[in-house]
Amino acid sequence: MGHPLTRPTGFALTEFSSVSRLSWRSWGGPKAVATGRLSGNWCLPRCTGTGYPATIELSRLQRRENVSYYTRAAVRSSHLPPGGHDGQSELSAVRLPLPES
Question: Which of 19, 47, 67, 90 has a Cα-to-Cα distance from 54 of 20 to 30 A?
Answer without folding.
Answer: 67
